[in-house]
Every structure is written in C-alpha cells, then in structure tokens.
UniProtKB/TrEMBL annotation:
Residues 1-29 form the signal peptide. Keywords: Disulfide bond, Hydrolase, Plant defense, Signal. CDD domains: ChiC_BD, chitinase_GH19. The keyword Aminoacyl-tRNA synthetase does not apply. Pfam families: Glyco_hydro_19 (PF00182). The keyword Disulfide bond applies. Residues 33-75 form the Chitin-binding type-3 domain. SMART domains: ChtBD3. GO terms for molecular function: hydrolase activity. This is Glycoside hydrolase family 19 protein.
C-alpha cells in the first residue's frame, strides 16, 4: 500500500512539473492605446502608449512622460510583432511607434509608409555616420517638418492670399499650372515655380506641370521635403543634411530653411520652438542633440 501511494505521489509530481515547466504558448500582444501626448490631460485610469508599451495614469497628469514619472503604471508591451520601439525593417532609425509619438495629432495624409517609401530617393539621409548622428539627423528633419506644418497637420499653406505671389514669371518655363498654383505644400511647404521645377527634375516627377501631386500623394510630398533637406542650402551656406552629418549643428538647419527671417535675432521665439521640438525628438530616439542648437 505504501509503495502504491508513493508511486501515485511520484506520478502526480511529474504531472505538476510538466504543467509548471512546459513553455507557455505565446500570447498575442495587447493593442496599443493612443500615443502619449505631452499636451494631453490624462485622468486617473486614462491610458496611453509610449515606446511600445501601454501605460495607465494613476491620477491626473499632463506632460509627465510615461516611464519617467511615478504617476504612470506600466501595463505591458503592445503592438505585436517586432518591438515597435525598435528601428523599422526598412532600416529607418525612426520606428512607426516613435513616429506616432512625435506626431500624435498628425493629418492622416502624412503616413509613415509614405515617408519610408520616400527614403530611397536619398539613401544617405539618416544613414550617414554613427548611430547617434543618424538618429540626430532624423530628429532634426522631423523637428523642422513639425514646425513648418503645425505637427504634420497642414498639408498646404494656410494663407491663401499668398498663393498668387509664388510665380516667378522671369523663368523661361513660366507657370504652366497657373499663377496661383505654386503655394506651399508638403512637409517643408515647397513653394515657388522654380522650386517645383527643380524638385520635379531631381525626382523625375512633373511637379511644374502638376504641383498638386505634392498634396495628393504622401510619398511625393515626403520626397520634396527630403529633396530640400538633402540638396538645398536655401538662405544658408550648407544643406541641412550636411549641417548635421558634418557637425555644424541643428542651428544651421534652421538657417538653411528660413535664414535671417528667424536667425541672427530675426525671430528668436520661432528658433526656440524648433529647438524644443528637436530636443524632444532626440529624446524619443535615444540620442543627444549635439552642440550649436541655435542660429
């Protein structure tokens, strides 16, 4: 009898051990809550996603970043598949999750897929130098883009009274799409007939004849922004791309976009707005902003 009981105990122990130590099947990751926004107000129990994880507010909070403030309770990973905080399989140093954190209120036109599809036009963008420099350039571009578009909200220039002013009739090719057709569009608000001509020629797209493509096709819109960033010095002395990869600093990217309108005391509040966004974006990407932030 004692042997029989002992055998039953041993058998039961084996069953328990098997139950305890068998690898659990992989559960599906939770869906991500809406991306955390520094400007949003969260009440106790409110949820947000940040860096590929869901968070729940313990009490009222605003501008307290999840993972850095005790007000947030970690609810676990979200999104499924690869860690959404990791670089995208395309090789871009900004993941879709991070992109959504940067632009929580963006217009649906400005898709992440449109941006990654546009990267092939300028393979050196955010892909030159150390990992820190690559992330710094991506943050610098997206910070300036955010400033130009109100957080990727505006697709076209809001002041319609300016529209007829962007036709330089002295150009031999004129303004075939109409005098008022070359207003600001896209992430860096491409404007003027000569810029549409130059960008279109570089990208192999007829933007002079059909500038509306920039407000109708997300990939085209992103390509025009990357065209300016990588090839144009504007009122500055270097391209924004070179300003970052050669160590001139974020301030020189501002100069290349708006020159004395903002730099050298032209509008310090606007400069600081760009810097603030750049610092926030470098933090999201886990890199440092470097030196020479202002112009």
């Amino acid at each position: 009898m004692a042997k029989r009981v002992m055998s039953l105990i041993v058998a039961l122990g084996a069953v328990i051990a098997t139950f305890v130590f068998l690898p659990a099947s992989t559960a599906s990751a939770a869906a991500c809550a809406p991306a955390w926004s520094a400007s949003a107000v969260y009440w106790g129990g409110g949820s947000a996603s940040y860096n590929g994880r869901n968070w729940s507010a313990k009490w009222w909070t605003q501008n307290e970043r999840p993972g850095t403030a005790d007000v947030w309770a970690d609810q676990g990973s979200c999104g499924g598949g690869t860690d959404p905080g990791q670089p995208d399989p395309s090789g871009f140093v900004v993941s879709e999750s991070q992109f959504n954190q940067m632009f929580p209120s963006r217009n649906s036109f400005y898709t992440y897929s449109g941006l990654t599809a546009a990267l092939s036009a300028y393979p050196g963008f955010a892909n030159t130098g150390s990992d820190a420099v690559k992330k710094r350039e991506a943050a610098a571009f997206l910070a300036n883009v955010s400033h130009e578009t109100g957080g990727l909200v505006h697709i076209v220039e809001q002041n319609t009274a300016n529209y007829p002013h962007y036709c330089d009739t002295s150009q031999s090719y004129g303004c075939p799409a109409g005098q008022a057709a070359y207003y600001g569009r896209g992430p860096i608000q491409l404007s003027w007939n000569f810029n549409y001509k130059a960008a279109g020629d570089a990208l192999g797209i007829d933007l002079l004849g059909n500038p509306w493509q920039v407000e109708q096709n997300a990939s085209v819109a992103w390509k025009t922004g990357l065209w300016y960033w990588n090839t144009q010095s504007g009122p500055g002395t270097m391209t924004p791309h070179n300003a970052i990869v050669n160590g001139a600093g974020f301030g020189e990217t501002i100069r290349s976009i708006n020159g004395s309108i903002e730099c050298n005391g032209g509008n310090p509040a606007q400069v600081q707005s760009r810097i603030n966004k750049f610092q926030a974006f470098t933090q999201i990407l886990g890199t440092t902003p470097g030196s020479n932030l202002s112009c």
